[in-house]
Amino acid sequence: MVTTLDQVFREEWGRVLATLIGFLGDFDLAEEAAQEAFAIAADRWPRDGAPSNPRAWLMTTARNRATDRIRRDRAIATKFGLLVADDRAEVPMKTTSFPDERLELIFTCCHPALAVEAQVALTLRTLGGLSTDEIARAFLVPERTMAQRLVRAKRKIKAAGIPFRVPPVHLLRERLDAVLAVVYLIFNEGYGGRDELAAEAIWLGRALAELLPKEPEVRGLLAMMLLHDSRREARFSDGELVLLGDQDRSRWNTEQIAAGRAELDHALAMGGRGPYVLQAAIASLHAEMPCDWAQIAALYGELTHLTGSPVVELNRAIAIAETEGPEAGLRIVDQLGLHDFRYLHSTRAELLRRLGRTDEAREAYRRARQLTDDSAERRFLERRLTELADTTGPG
Amino acid sequence: MKYVMLIYQGPALERQAALPQDEQKQVSADYQAINQTPGVTPGLPMGLAENATTVRVEGGKTLTTDGPFVGMKEAVGGWFILEADDLDAAIEVAARVPAARYGGAVEIRPSEVYW
């Protein structure tokens, strides 16, 4: 099997970095050393051939670089009479079995003492191996801003004493939720068309499922992402947004749907009934033909019960409208307080349109259009408005 | 790690004053327990913010004003020093401070050696 250098780097970066951080106790030093090792590999491997154990090679090279740097810094410090506290790199690292410390790493990156955007950036940089520039582009911020965000986060980890470890049992639930939220957030950012982020989130989800195989919610999140992502190709036609009911099902990724359902089955078999498992089950039902809307509505009901989220209620209203008619759906929608949420207005508009209440529908579509910045969504709403104008004359 | 733990009372003092007597006793006992937690060096009890005097120096001139520093939304109500393994350990102690559950908050500042 031929694996390209890129693939090896992709697979190994997070692991090598995690081990180095665990060993050196310093994010910056570990990152610099890892970067150097990967650069040397990129230079040498194509010429001399890849080593038989690439991971061990990268780990050892990086560790040696870090040790050199510490010695150099220490020599300078001694020259200037400064104190140097850290002796950790002098301790030889076991080269026979490198511990996999990616879990420690992700729990550190997603620690609640860091701002959520810093958690996201740090996770993508350290575990995902994305460059600062790539992360900046994905989140539409200047590279300088992203670089500062990463520097500040790493500084805080060190200064505030955020531990590098998998949280003890009594904290695990809450901290795992934070990790899953970060992965989900990355996926959502990618859902609007930035494919690389969605792919990255799925990759992180797979790594988490491998590291925490007994957590149903981890599998649930992975299943949900795979199932949503399987419809990626069909969600747009010539750059225009296509709703679920109108999608060309031949463009759904059936392999990915099967993979998602397999993860979901795993989660259910473990007794999982948490928010991500429920959302995955709903996504799985959405991929069926015909859709079992009554079952979907019931699952949304369960999800509302767990999360208390009005956004979930809005989704339940859509499912109810399919089984009990638009009026029943509208009754739920009109009780929700989400006045600045664009999907509340687009959902209302759709239900009003079905009820033939054209003027109110038009008003709601306009409100939704006002609230969205996404160009594909705007064009979709424009099309709906034009269709309404065609049926009733200009208004 | 050494942390400076700053206590903000928010509405906590008022809310505690309205509690039944046994719960008020519990609050005092909880503060007492914090002070006796290994790693904790209690700070001196702080008087009310309304009796504070704030000193700033501008252009070599000392400006003394009545009350706490207005640049902050709220005045510090108390403090202690905590020696703990890491931030998670500090968060656990902070969460035991009664002010934190009666609408106030505890701010954890890692102590720093500047000189």
Fold and architecture overview:
The complex is a heterodimer of chains A (395) and B (115). Chain A is mostly helical and 395 residues long. Helix content of chain A is 71%, strand content 1%. Chain A is built from 19 helices and two strands. Chain A has helices at 5-24, 27-48, 54-79, 102-109, 116-126, 132-138, 143-160, 169-191, 195-211, 216-229, 232-235, 254-269, 275-286, 293-307, 310-324, 326-333, 342-354, 358-371, 375-392; strands at residues 236-237, 240-241. In chain A, strands 1-2 form a two-stranded antiparallel sheet. In chain A, a hairpin with a 2-residue loop joins strand 1 (236-237) and strand 2. The longest helix of chain A has 26 residues, at 54-79. Chain A starts with a helix and ends with a helix. Chain B is of the alpha+beta class and 115 residues long. Chain B has four helices and six strands, in the order βααββββααβ. In chain B, the strands form two sheets. A four-stranded antiparallel β-sheet of chain B has the order 2-5-1-6. In chain B, strands 3-4 form a two-stranded antiparallel ribbon. Chain B is flat. The two termini of chain B are 17 Å apart. The relative contact order of chain B is 0.34. The interface between A and B is small, with 9 and 12 residues.
Q: Layout of SSEs?
A:
The complex is a heterodimer of chains A (395) and B (115).
Chain A: H1 5-24, H2 27-48, H3 54-79, H4 102-109, H5 116-126, H6 132-138, H7 143-160, H8 169-191, H9 195-211, H10 216-229, H11 232-235, E1 236-237, E2 240-241, H12 254-269, H13 275-286, H14 293-307, H15 310-324, H16 326-333, H17 342-354, H18 358-371, H19 375-392
Antiparallel strand pairs in A: 1-2
Helix pairs in contact in A: 1-2, 1-3, 1-4, 2-3, 5-7, 5-8, 6-7, 8-9, 8-10, 9-10, 10-12, 10-13, 12-13, 13-14, 14-15, 15-16, 15-17, 16-17, 17-18, 18-19
Chain B: E1 2-8, H1 12-17, H2 21-35, E2 40-42, E3 53-58, E4 61-66, E5 78-83, H3 87-94, H4 98-101, E6 105-110
Antiparallel strand pairs in B: 1-5, 1-6, 2-5, 3-4
